[in-house]
Design a protein that fits this description.
Length: 453
């Protein structure tokens, strides 16, 4: 069923991922009260109320901000019974807890949404549509949609509503932001001057959701303001007295947990405290917020679709390797992917060369051509006798996860011949992935000076 397009606040969900650092300080009496606040919903539509173990390796958490109007307070519009995810952030914690990459997924992203069984809000047959619409059928459907889009496994989700966002910011005593110019938006009830200032929860929500105060007026354009608000919340949480003042701490946690829905694997405060221990180990300089690179959808100028750079980011998350940005001072070896790659299909599997080409292109390689070849049993990689070609071939074998030896041959660049054993090679344990190629994405480190742009 098609519903009218909503222009709602988008930044709410990701803040719930940040409140867990305070849980380790809660006393027993407060703990009982706060535990009663937390609501749970299934992580997947096909596993009921099962409680997955809290992962000890790398961890992917989908943080959702619901635009539901079923709230105790007014001012957010009439409740029509529906909900969308106006904030979607895919948070990746590395296996060694040395970094966090938080990828903002524009709500206006068009994608193939998978079918979803009924988890309390009805079933969904699947189809092509806006990514944020999946939440209408419950968070498990949003999890399935983002897994299909990004090609990664999501271990947990956290969902929060408008009231929770405002309450958490207010319980912190507000946050500090810095605006390069004054912003006014009657639709979002936003009226802020230029410069450094402290804002409360209602103002923070308005700043995060404004479209009309921006020249572009688009969903993607306002994600930069959301990154500023994200950074401001992290900085306030780590530098303020929220964690040492009992009145602020309890108010902070009560506001967060009262409006929070999580999967059963995070349903106990002890689970959230375990997650907090990991989050607390990550320095602010290693917490990066970045917007999924997107371009205008061919069929609708008001919607977006992921770019090849987005695919590279998602693959980096899946491989648990750092996302390398074009703004980074240090980039990977420039020779790793410079030589063109020809892909030949000798496996007898229709479409295999095209699928492998998509994989190689997403990793940053240049595919010079695709062709069918005579059937062969073994997959081979042949490279020209140059350092650049050899480096490209070795990296390609590593990133595709095929343990074959690169040979030197009379070829133009690199030639990958897919044999009947290719799928079996792919199913075997993969070698350490090569570094991600640099990508161009709007980004901000959590420790960036709020007045630095």
């Amino acid at each position: 069923m098609t519903r009218p397009r909503r222009r709602r606040g988008k930044v709410i969900g990701w803040i719930s991922a940040l409140i867990v650092v305070a849980l380790v300080a809660v006393g027993a009496i407060a703990y009982a009260q706060l535990q009663g606040n937390v609501s749970t919903a299934p992580l997947r539509s096909d596993d009921g109320d099962g409680e997955p173990e809290l992962a000890t390796g790398d961890l992917n958490i989908l943080v959702l901000g619901s635009d539901t109007r079923a709230l105790a307070s007014g001012g957010f519009g009439e409740d029509d019974g529906s909900q969308r995810s106006d904030a979607m952030v895919l948070v990746h914690i590395s296996s060694d807890s040395s970094r966090i990459d938080a990828v903002q997924l524009p709500r206006d992203t068009l994608a193939d949404l998978p079918a979803c069984e009924d988890t309390g809000r009805g079933s969904y047959d699947g189809g092509y549509g806006m990514l944020n619409s999946a939440l209408e059928y419950g968070p498990a459907c949003s999890v399935a949609a983002v897994e299909q889009l990004a090609g990664v496994t999501i271990d947990h989700f956290v969902q929060m509503d408008f009231e929770g966002f405002i309450g958490v910011v207010d319980a912190m005593g507000g946050i500090d932001v810095c605006l390069p110019e004054a912003l006014t938006d009657g639709h979002a009830q936003l009226d802020l001057p230029a410069g450094a200032q402290s804002i409360d929860g209602t103002q923070a929500l308005a700043l995060a959701r404004t479209r009309h105060a921006l020249a572009e007026g688009s969903d993607v354009a306002r994600l930069g303001h959301q990154q500023m608000v994200l950074s401001a919340i992290v900085q306030k949480a780590t530098k303020s007295d929220v964690l040492v003042r009992p009145d602020r701490l309890y108010a902070f946690l009560d506001a967060a947990t009262s409006s929070m829905t999580v999967d059963p694997g995070l349903g106990a405060l002890t689970d959230l405290a375990g997650l907090a221990a990991r989050v607390a180990n990550v320095p602010m300089s290693s917490v990066t917020f970045l917007t999924m690179p997107a371009t205008e959808a061919p069929e609708d100028a008001n919607r977006v679709v992921p770019t090849a750079d987005a695919d590279v980011i998602f693959r980096a998350l899946g491989d648990d390797v750092p996302v390398v940005l074009t703004t980074d001072a240090v980039e990977p070896d420039a020779t790793v992917r410079t030589t063109p790659v020809e892909i030949l299909n000798g496996a007898g599997v229709a479409g295999l060369a095209s699928r492998v080409s998509e994989d190689a292109t997403a990793y940053g390689y240049t595919v010079s051509g695709l062709a069918n070849a005579e059937a062969v049993d073994a997959t081979t990689i042949v490279a020209a006798d140059t350092p650049e070609a050899q480096a490209t071939a070795q990296a390609l074998a590593t990133e595709l996860g095929i343990g074959v030896t690169v040979t030197v041959g009379d070829v133009d660049g690199v030639q990958l011949l897919l044999g009947a054993d290719y799928e079996n090679l792919k199913s075997q344990s993969q070698a350490t992935p090569a570094p991600s190629r640099p990508v161009d994405a709007v980004n901000r480190s959590a420790d960036t000076d709020l007045c630095a742009g």
